[in-house]
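=== Structure Prediction Worksheet ===
Name of assembly: unnamed complex
Input type: mixed (protein and possibly other molecules)
Chain count: three
Listed entries:
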Amino acid sequence: MLGLIAKRLLLAIPNLIGVVIITFLLTRALPGDPAAYFAGPAANKEAIEQIRVKLGLDRPLPEQFVRYVKELAGGDLGNSLTTGQPVVTEIRNRLPASAELTLFGLVISISIAVPLGILAAVKQGSWIDHACRVVATAGVSLPVFFTGLLLVYVFYFLLGWSPAPLGRLDVFFSAPPQVTGFYLIDSLIARDFGLFRAALSQLILPGVTLGVFSLAPIARMTRASMLAVLGSDFVRTARASGLDTRTVILTYAFRNAMLPVITTLGMVFSFLLGANVLVEKVFAWPGIGSYAVEALIASDFAPVQGFVLTMAILYVALNLIIDVLYGLIDPRVRLEG
Amino acid sequence: MSESNSVLRHARYVVSENPVTGFAFAMFLLIAFAALFGPYIVPHDPLASDTAATLQPPSIKHWFGTDQLGRDIFSRVVVATRLDFAIAISSVILVFAMGGLAGIASGFFGGWTDRIVGRISDTIMAFPLFVLAMGIVAALGNTVTNIVLATAVINFPLYVRVARAEANVRREAGFVQAARLSGNGEFRVLLMHILPNIMPIMMVQVSLTMGYAILNAAGLSFIGLGVRPPTPEWGIMVAEGSGNIISGEWWIALFPGLALMLAVFCFNLLGDGLRDLVDPQRRT
Amino acid sequence: MAKRTPKRTGAAVARDVPISMPLLEVRDLTVEFATRRGTVRAVEHVNVTVGKGETLGIVGESGSGKSVTSFAVMRILDRAGRIAQGSVLFSGVDLTTTSDADMRDLRGREMSMIFQNPRAALNPIRKIGRQIEDVLLQHAQVGNQDVGEHAIQMLEQVRIARPRERYHAYPLELSGGMCQRVVIALALACRPQLLIADEPTTGLDVTTQKAVMDLVVELTRERGMSSILITHDLGLAAAYCNRVVVMEKGRVVETAKAETIFTKPAHAYTRKLMRATPRPGVSLRDLLPEGDSSRAPASKAPGTRRATGALLTVEKLVKEYPRKREVSLFTRLFGPKPPIEEEIFRAVDGVSFSINRGESVGLVGESGCGKSTTSMMLMRLIDKSSGLIMFDGEDIGEIPARDFARIPLRKRIQMVFQDPTDSLNPRYTAARAIADPILRLDDASGRDVRARCEELARRVGLPKELLDRFPHQLSGGQKARVGIARAIALKPDLVVLDEPTAALDVSVQAVVLNLLQDLKDSLGMSYLFVSHDLNVVRLLCDRVIVMRAGQIVEEGPTKQVLSDPQSDYTRELLAAIPHPPV
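=== Predicted Assembly ===
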């Protein structure tokens, strides 16, 4: 098994290299004078020149690239113009907020989408099947920011069930002592149930928004995959051997059907990490997505680049985990090597 | 029996078999109409602000109400169709040409073509796609052209993957070998034998990607990239209306959002219908 | 066969079958399927009985309903299918009215089934030992502690070597034949009374086929089990079964003992099937239905030659493929270098033979022997690794495959493919497909091309109206004719036929084989007939070449090689062919 992980790790390295190269090119592809961008709109000619030398923008491109990689290795992503803080610190502080939101949304969507897909496939032609198909087709058509706004309007403005979409916690509450950075977990560790409820109530609407967004592709893939497996020869053999329905569906069909679904998760994460940015804007969520959006508005480029790089590295790591998970379940991957 | 006659007959048959496809096609025509003629037939000037009539709910005079600057939302929504449609179509054509060709060549010829295209594709896919689009537009400049470019780039791996898989499966098929025996050189085989068989699937991809391209452009505009006010575009209109949701002025964000949703839904449904039309397996 | 018996209208039932309490009694069974075009009756008023300890064969071509009947017995019909009429009595219990829960009990424990394509029939991500255990545990045959041992015992009984090791194997690690043995183990694990085998050997090599059939027969006889063998091969059924039921278009047309079904078939359809089955001692014309015997006999009985001189010569032909080995980077950098032989796989290992003008040469062997690779190289569709290929005095081996398509020589060597569906472009009409070589390699245009297509269609017996149809609108036999018309369009000198009738029903095969022989004679072509079916080769080929593991093990005139084989392998191949009792 260690061999499997090592092999997948090796395959991830070219991706990492590609990510670093692309982000480097993006930083140098700015139209006009990059130094002027980094100096900010308020800088005069001298300041721009100073920045140019400071950032090494006057050196040849390959040299700049080496310097870029060195800085990355040292954890230096530049400084934000608006706050003056190192980008890497701010990202590190804000990452748990985004992570908690995304994971919460994913848990919601998987716990609905997978059973829905399975039931739709097992009871083909029933109302569940039709519901699943409608959800799948309509779900991919909904813009995620629109869903968010709709939910805010209905549940906050009309029904008053949800608190105002103003971030992770209401003004009356303060954050729990930091253990993981996830408010839900940290408040439970600190045994502060009031805080837990407050954090949860803020998390529900944005979490459901993300959940609804990722529901459609997962449900669709689960249903399609389950249908294909249920019609396969080996399930026919299982039935002909008299294995009971539960064994056939869970042990034989489900495990095989999950393989393409796991592969789809990679794509779902790609969409989720992007949708995260939009949802954070709608709900004023203090994560790295809103950090980047605020920086964009202020023409502050270092945070944007830091954001893109962080997200990409995160995504490569996620894909690695998914690949390893797939390899653990499917022995064919291990054997064909 | 001329070819075009039978295509038309088959189209009628498909639409009658599947009313949903017919509905989607009708929607598509409506959208195309709005895109082409919208600016000429709207009741109000989409850019004209009227400070006396701000934040009005839908009424007889303003079917979709007015926004913070007193602009008629209905006119803006209709006129925005053209921009969103244009962005989606240009990026899809771009990526279909580049990604489709790269994918087919990569799947059919293999070797170095496959390796290089694969490397490019993998590098793009290493990023969460929307994030990459953000990065590209932020880096290259805040313009609509760059939205088109960014959308094309992030869809490139998908087209490559679909085209490559289809070309690969058919590479050693019996009829391809037979084509070689009949005197078709490699390029002829690719163009005359493999491409016509891949087209139906690519057509479905095109329609689905149209929907995704519109969502992508709207998303980028929502966070302030690409389209700048006062240009009417669905995404930026939702952004402009988002602040007013908490104060209950729902119409500013709802109507552009609905238009967005309907357009994407229509393209998704159309994708399935298109596949039925172009695939001769379904001809009777 | 000399006397013509009058056609009977009903099913003919043999009268001398021993009457004991039947284990399975299918009475007046009718199965319907709901399709887009309304209800279709796949099986109508079928009566079948299986006695205790008896082996029954159900024979029919595609669309005969033989598989549907067995699926109905096991109650594993598709969602769209239902038993509309009739009863299925198993030891007196009517299965059509049994509850689902009771059926699940019966399946696997009292009656079980094995299918075609054994590898796909096993769960790819579950160890085979565990799969056997699942069945044992389901039917409470064995306690949890002993179930592992029982599973290993089953593997032993189906003759899988090193069962203890193989217990932990996954299906992809096993060969096709071994997978079928595992499937048999699954089916027999709980000692059922009835085993239904649905085309269990289709797709397997003839020697593997014999091994699997012998195993099934031995195990069922040992346990006093009854079994049903469903197949399209009348010869196979007659060789391995006690009684045979013949089905056509959803109805039973004849039921008789195995000996009589071949020697004294009563129903016209059975006779047609029996005649169409390639077997020793008949000629090509004998394969055709009785009415067609009035055609002129094949102008050349196999074994005589017309023109002389070698048309194609192959010398020491070799094809190597690099073996894909995923070795970790670490080992690749620092480990010992693997020996060269392990890195390279020789699909064709120094093959030499020739084909004379007007001659028909058979190239036989089992899967993986290299016959297809050899024929691909001759066709110049793939490049050789080394060796010589001479065609009519020219060295065609040196011309790269990708350039060969556009030179005039291309016209002279053509091919008929195995799978008629796969070999036709789904988006081209039949006419366009046939016209392709004419358009590309002959300077012809417009009306001229159409006229030539019609002439070719006439020659291969394809009705003119079908020329404008797409492949999915044609039957298997019609598609095969289109493929043949395309191959002979430019009057080639050499035609390579790669198992051209393997995918066709046996009655269609009879017609197509005759067509191929007639075309060869009238156009003066030479054939290289690649096949695994020795009986077909016997009928069509002047000489035969036997290949194994990339090398030629024997060659010579067909009559001689097949009646007096010199090599052990050829003898093994001949012995594996099912011998119907004649």
